Amino acid sequence: MALIIVKKSPANKLSEFLLKLALPQDKVIFIQDGVIFAIEKNLKGLVKEGVELFALKEDFIARGFEESESQIPLIDYEGWADLIERDEKIIS
Amino acid sequence: MALIIVKKSPANKLSEFLLKLALPQDKVIFIQDGVIFAIEKNLKGLVKEGVELFALKEDFIARGFEESESQIPLIDYEGWADLIERDEKIIS
Amino acid sequence: MHIAIQVNVPPYTNEDMDTAIHLAQILVNRGHKVSIFLFADSVLATNKLVKPMKIDRNIPLKLQELSDKGVEVHICGLCAQYRGITEDMKIEGSDFSGVPEMAALIYNSDRYINLLP
Amino acid sequence: MHIAIQVNVPPYTNEDMDTAIHLAQILVNRGHKVSIFLFADSVLATNKLVKPMKIDRNIPLKLQELSDKGVEVHICGLCAQYRGITEDMKIEGSDFSGVPEMAALIYNSDRYINLLP
Amino acid sequence: MKKVLFAVYNSPVGSIWINEALRSAFGMYGEDLEPVVLFVNEAVLAVRKQCKPEIIGCLPLSITFKYLEKYNTQVYAIKEDLEKYSIKENEIEPHWNLKTIIKEELPDFVHSFDKVVFF
Amino acid sequence: MKKVLFAVYNSPVGSIWINEALRSAFGMYGEDLEPVVLFVNEAVLAVRKQCKPEIIGCLPLSITFKYLEKYNTQVYAIKEDLEKYSIKENEIEPHWNLKTIIKEELPDFVHSFDKVVFF
Questions:
Q1: Domains in chain C: how many in total?
Q2: Three-state secondary structure readout of A19-66
Q3: Which end of chain D is more exposed for a tag (fewer CB within 10 A), N or C?
């Protein structure tokens, strides 16, 4: 199990490359411009089944989005820290 | 008539955005990682008819390509300077 | 836990230093040992001569405050030389090191978080 | 002709300074007046404390040589403050200016070449 | 009088480019120049009232509002990009006094300027 | 012994990242670490014999060859990316001692490392 950090926007090809690395039971956290992924309707289609997706709330809100626009759970820095504590492997 | 400079690789969406700005009789010069466009078989399909395309030879060769791989004329810095002298408007 | 964070891009122009500083604060408050490894253009964040506008945040000062709280701040020395940052410019509590220190952090840390360039 | 070149990204990490310097050399040899406007992280290129490895090019020195040949080197002063570069660090012949100088260059130059970030 | 376009394609939050483009634009009034600002791709996120880089500790966009008003600087955003992020008219911060432009008109629009600077 | 992956996704010419990734990798041997390097996207252009950043005045890739030999560092490139740029086997610089990996195997490959650093 790994935690994958996606910090670049969907416009950057590397982001999708990182999403494809995720295996079932991995977690992905979108931060910075990566949070723009959170409004994509077919976001779950970009990762394998069983991959958990999160977006960093502060970065999402700062970009003018409303919480209701997110297709995935929004977590704060404490939530991100929880994920970091839980998974030993971090890919970014 | 304008000279459009494309310096980012085809992987970057901005490059295609800039190519779409080109009007007939405009010139486009690919420099830096933009030269990777020069090997694209359907490159001319990315711009309007009548747009002239060039790639900076030095940047192309440095990336390991052979001159014969380029679909468009390769020009050196002197050639780029010619283009700069000719067109007043530069978009980049 | 020992958690290391590597940054690679310049402060202000991009937000990675802000992300790293915020994350480090949270992790320190949770009782973790935190190390920040500054690589490539991120070394600019340790230059105490940086003078932001008054309404803007002072990133070197924030790093200094983290260092005062026990966060280790490692600066890639060769990267600093390439950016014209000398030992006397760096904030208190930060250290010039290099790839061997990166290796030590990668080996010893429980978590290694790279913020890719 | 008066040709201005604006750079926005840091030297070494990216190649824009190399491109700008090479282009400026060619244009000067053709008899043009050339001005280089350094904005955002590109101001690092004027720091004479930059110490590259011996086998690498010395970008501030190359800029200095261009300046000796008559190329104007303008540094955005606010950008320099944000990067901790003070007046005494800048190479000879370069000047701290700002957006008013950018405006003057945009207005007066025959060609304005921006290398986008 | 010459016309200058400052086009921004970078995200408004976490990078300096929107603020730097606006600062550059405002500096143009010292010469006989007319600056116009264009938001492209993710840069259009800037126009929403709730877009606040200060939430993550970065410089607010709102520091530019008094100059936008003083100089009456024209700001454009690409219509299709606004739609991509579902940005509705009533969500747009009035200080931008925003005009929209469709992609089809962009080539002629950009060519109507004497100088063009992308950020 | 821990395994570390340095993956590079940036172009080999005009940016520092391939050289920095290799420099980082070579530094790992001071600890009980095994570094592996992976070239992704345009970074694969590095492997051609004729790829020479020194042509445009940048640091040569060849300064890394003696260390690659000394440490026998493993370097991988993504097969599909090599094909995208029509890089043929006989064009590959032998000093890289290059192995290829297909995209389908990447998730398991990347997960086989203890630490992963992208440049």
A1: 1
A2: HHHCCCCCEEEECHHHHHHHHCCCHHHHCCCCCEEEEEHHHHHHECCC
A3: N
CA distance A60 to A66: 8
How far apart CA A45 and CA A26 sit, in angstroms, is 15
CATH number of the domain where residue A87 is located: 3.40.1260.10
CATH code for the domain in which residue C30 is found: 3.40.1260.10
Q: Which chains touch E (3 or more CB pairs under 8 A)?
A: A, B, C, D
Instruction: Specify whether the backbone of F62 is left (phi greater than 0), alpha (psi in -120 to 50) or beta.
Output: alpha
- Nearest chain D alpha carbon to C59: D82
Task: State the chains in contact with D (3 or more Cβ–Cβ pairs under 8 Å).
Answer: B, C, E, F
Please check whether residue A44 lies inside any domain of the structure.
Answer: yes
- Chain C contact set for F6 (CB, 8 A): none
Distances (CA, A) of A34 to A9, A11, A56, E11: 4, 9, 9, 11
Of C16, C18, C26, C32, the C-alpha closest to C72 is C32
- Residue among C62, C61, C76, C51 nearest C28 (CA): C62
Interval D38-73: pLDDT, tens: 999 999 999 999 999 999 999 999 999 999 999 999
C-alpha F41/C-alpha B9 separation (Å) is: 11
Greatest distance between any 2 Cα atoms in chain C: 40
**Closest to C38 in 3D by CA, of C62, C58, C10, C65:** C10
Q: How many CA atoms lie within 13 A of F112 on its CB side?
A: 8
Distances (CA, A) of A6 to A15, A53, C6, F77: 6, 10, 15, 22
- From first CA to last CA, the distance across chain A in angstroms is 14
Q: What order do you get walking across the sheet with D72-76 strand by strand? A: D94-97, D72-76, D33-38, D2-7, D111-115
Q: What is the pLDDT of residues F24-77, one digit of tens each?
A: 999 999 999 999 999 999 999 999 999 999 999 999 999 999 999 999 999 999
Sheet holding C33-38, edge to edge: C94-97, C72-76, C33-38, C2-7, C111-115
Within a domain: residue A4?
no
Residue E54 φ then ψ, to 5°: -65, -20
- CA E19 to CA F49: how far, in whole Å? 43
Q: Give the 3-state DSSP-derived string for F32-99, with helices as H, strands as E and coil as C.
A: CEEEEEEECHHHHHHHECCECHHHHCCCCHHHHHHHHHHHCCEEEEEHHHHHHCCCCHHHECHHHCCE
Q: Cβ of E112: how many Cβ atoms within 10 Å?
A: 12
User: For residue B9, which residues of chain F lie inside 8 Å, CB to CB?
Assistant: 11, 42
CATH of domain E2-118: 3.40.1260.10
Neighbours of F32 (CB within 10 A): 10
Tens-place pLDDT, residues C20-65? 999 999 999 999 999 999 999 999 999 999 999 999 999 999 999 9
Q: Containing domain of residue D71, as a range? A: 2-115
Whether D19 contacts D115, CB under 8 Å: yes
Are residues F74 and F6 in contact, defined by beta-carbon separation less than 8 angstroms?
Answer: no
Q: Give me the domain span that covers residue B75.
A: 23-91
Using alpha carbons, select from B74, B92, B12 the residue that is nearest to residue B38: B74
Which band of pLDDT confidence, cut at 50, 70 and 90, is reported for residue B87? Answer: confident
Q: Model ipTM?
A: 0.97
Q: Give the integer Cα–Cα distance in Å for E41 and B11.
A: 15
